[in-house]
Amino acid sequence: MSDQEQFIGQSYLNLETYRRSGQAMPTPVWFVEDRGMFYVRTIHNAGKVKRVRNQPQVRMMPCGQRGEPRGAWVEGRADVVDTAEADRVNALLNHKYGFLKRVFDLFQRSRGHDVIRVVITQP
Question: What is residue 21's predicted lDDT score, i.e. its pLDDT?
């Protein structure tokens, strides 16, 4: 099985970002794969976004809702998605997660959270 094939049919990936000290911080997140790239959605001021901007090298693997491993770690590079691409990624996430994603979006907006998307590419 290839690195990307292990993510087929999975709902979560464990995104491992790194603090300035080098300490790994794994976080289970919703994701969508498109054209060989993985996209995640998060609030703009989340710790993982700060860590990605500081150190774009990440690792990821398929996991359960609480981060339990369901595959092997894969190295990657994460970057914040530009605004034009964000709408396309949001549509892909809406298609994958359906009603639950829309409810989550309403909750985030009611709390005043701005949402961004992060793209993860493999080297």
Answer: 94
Share of residues in the chain with pLDDT > 70 (%): 93
The set of long-range contacts for 46-54, using a CB threshold of 8 Å and a minimum separation of 24, is: 47/17, 48/15, 48/17, 48/118, 49/80, 49/116, 49/118, 51/17, 51/18, 51/19, 51/25, 52/17, 52/78, 52/79, 52/80, 52/118, 53/80, 54/20
pLDDT on residue 104: 78
CATH for 5-121, among 2.30.30.50, 3.90.1150.10, 2.60.410.10, 2.30.110.10? 2.30.110.10
Asked if 29 and 40 touch (Cβ cutoff 8 Å), the reply is yes
Q: Record the pTM.
A: 0.85
Cα 71 to Cα 5: distance, rounded to the nearest angstrom: 10
Distance (Å, rounded) from C-alpha 33 to C-alpha 92? 9
Using an 8 Å Cβ cutoff, are 62 and 103 in contact? no
One-letter identity of residue 42? T
